[in-house]
Amino acid sequence: MINKFWLFFIFVGILVAAATGNMGKLTQVILDSAQRGVNLSLGLVAVLTFWLGMMKILEKSGLSALLVKALGPLAKFLFPSVPRDHPAMSSILMTMSADMLGMGSAATPIGLKAMKQLQELNPDKETASPAMCTFLAMNTSSITLIPTTIIALRAASGSLNPAMIIPTALVATCSSFTAALCLDRLFRYLHTRREKND
Amino acid sequence: MIEIMNTVSAWAIPVLVVVVVAYAAWKRVPVFETFVEGGKEGFAIAVDLIPYMVAILVGLGIFRESGAFDLLAKLLNPLTSLLGIPGEVLPLAIMRPISGNGALAIAAETMQRYGPDSLLGLIACTMQGSTDTTFYILTVYFGSVGVRNVRYSLKTGLLADITGFLVSVYVCKLVFG
């Protein structure tokens, strides 16, 4: 998918440049853009180092385990088919906590573990179980309390108040998260009904 | 409203930091050593980002400077203006479900072009912070356990993304506009 996207940008861009006579500046644009890509990435080193350090403290102090405990009732409501003491539950909650802190790269490894554990509970190994669909809905819409990466990028871009977007992002993330969970329930109901009628 | 939001955003991170460190110290965690241990990965992650950033910024640079982007924005203008979405944030909305690093690069580009504290920059950042990369997560998560039939998952993910984008635009217009 990303391949097609990139190809489209370059191919259409060069075609349009040929048609509009903008070809002359393209070489410089390519070099400048590459340089900006490197500068932006390296600009993130400082904040990434800081937040990964904080995450480690969070983990070692047991605060992240407390977070898991606090979210327990919510998880029970979202995943009725998963037994409370099943290891999948704690993996699901750890993924949720990492998502909340905007730590996408930390969430993925734990999320994959949760999928493996959900697969053990899944009767049809080739078809997604309802619990998996809910877990994926949760992850793709990803509720984020503090979007750390984007705040870092704002700081690197010279923002006067990098954290200014926390409240608006919170409203947006809660909306998409709620929409994902409602749609998941709705589609689950519609699909189950259709599959029964077949 | 704006004052409350400014206060919340100014206090959020310092408070989080002090709570995490104080709690860890109370639990007798060696905070300094632990921090250093965790922070070590930071450089590697940033370096891993370089090829993504370069690829996307070059692709977008070509697309934008050639005049192709203006053409696309003009074509989509009736739809976006009907919904009250600024055409400038459309590429980000399209990229967000496809590639996380790609979308991050577009958000960076938007900020460089219009300023991080401009309305467009703020909308872009809010969008970026509001959802995750739907296609990537579906592929990796289901792929890792061999599930082929993802049922209604893609539909759910994309509709939730659209909800997040529309809310991002409207909330930013309301608060910062």
Fraction of residues of chain B in helices?
A: over 70%
Q: How would you spell out the order of helices and strands of chain A?
A: HHHHHHHHHH
**Beta-strand fraction estimate of chain B:** under 5%
Look at the structure and give the mean pLDDT of chain B. 85
Tell me what portion of residues of chain A adopts beta-strand conformation.
under 5%
Oligomer description: heterodimer
Main beta sheet strand tally, sense and closure of chain A:
none
The value of Rg of chain B in angstroms is 20 Å
What does this molecule look like?
Chain A has helices at residues 2-20, 26-43, 45-61, 63-70, 72-78, 87-100, 104-121, 130-141, 148-156, 166-197. Chain A has 198 residues and is an all-alpha fold. Chain A is globular and about 65 Å long. Chain A is built from 10 helices and no strands. Chain B has 9 helices and no strands. Chain B has 177 residues and is mostly helical. The longest helix of chain B has 25 residues, at 2-26. Chain B starts with a helix and ends with a helix. Chain B has helices at 2-26, 31-39, 41-65, 68-83, 90-95, 100-114, 119-130, 134-145, 153-176.
List the helices and strands and how they pair.
The complex is a heterodimer of chains A (198) and B (177).
Chain A: H1 2-20, H2 26-43, H3 45-61, H4 63-70, H5 72-78, H6 87-100, H7 104-121, H8 130-141, H9 148-156, H10 166-197
Helix pairs in contact in A: 4-6, 6-7, 7-8, 8-10
Chain B: H1 2-26, H2 31-39, H3 41-65, H4 68-83, H5 90-95, H6 100-114, H7 119-130, H8 134-145, H9 153-176
Provide key terms for this protein.
heterodimer; A: 198 residues; mainly alpha; 10 helices; B: 177 residues; 2 domains; 9 helices; 81% helix; globular
